[in-house]
Structures are given as C-alpha cells and as structure tokens.
Specification:
This protein is of the alpha+beta class and about 130 residues long. The chain is built from 6 helices and 3 strands, in the order H-H-E-H-H-H-E-H-E.
Amino acid sequence: MPFIQHYFGTVSLVEIVYGEIDYTALVPIIEDALSDEETFIVISTDLSHFYSLEDANRLDSVCLKAVEQMDLDGLNAGCEACGMIGIKAVITAAKAEGMQSKLIDYRTSYDASSDADSVVGYMSVLLG
C-alpha cells in the first residue's frame, strides 16, 4: 500500500481477503474489476520460503516462467507461492480479457540482507 500511495496518491482501495477456496470463485470478482478501465489489481504474494539462494532461484524460476507464460498447469509444477489462489484467479481473468504478461522484476530477501542461507522470493509482473 505505501508504494501505491507514493506513486498514485490518494486512491480508493478494496481489499479481498480469502481463505482456502477454489481460485475460480475469485475470477468473476476480478473480471468485474477489470471491466473498469480506471481500476487496477494488485496481487501480493511471496514465492519460495527459507531455502538457500540457489534453491530459491531454482524453485522461483518455475513460478516466474508460469506467470510470464500465463500457464496455470506450469504453476502446479513446483511453484511455492503462498498466494497461488490469487495468482491463478488473476491469470485466468487476464487470459479471458486477452491480456499478456510481462515480468518486471524478481528479487529475493538476499538482495536486502545478504543472507544466502534462508531467503524468500518475490516477483513483480504486469498483466495488461
């Protein structure tokens, strides 16, 4: 939220909190939001958790490739994102709208801590 406020100022925000549900239940909500051209959606999730830097990069590459290719099956091939439900819902809605995916950045906590023994992965992707 601080980044959104920094770059966009005061904005209206609707937070969607969900538990263990089928991702398809979120798709209509996201599709409805995407129908408004002045609305954007942010999905926030970590990727792998507490692996060595080398293992995290390997595991996270599965997520990065699948999201960039908008491949739901690829997400099931080892991606450990804790926000998988939201990722799948957004990809499904974006595909229905004919959107494409572009990887903006990938980092791990190593970039801030220099601890290569136990890292958490993060990615930024633009769908549009």
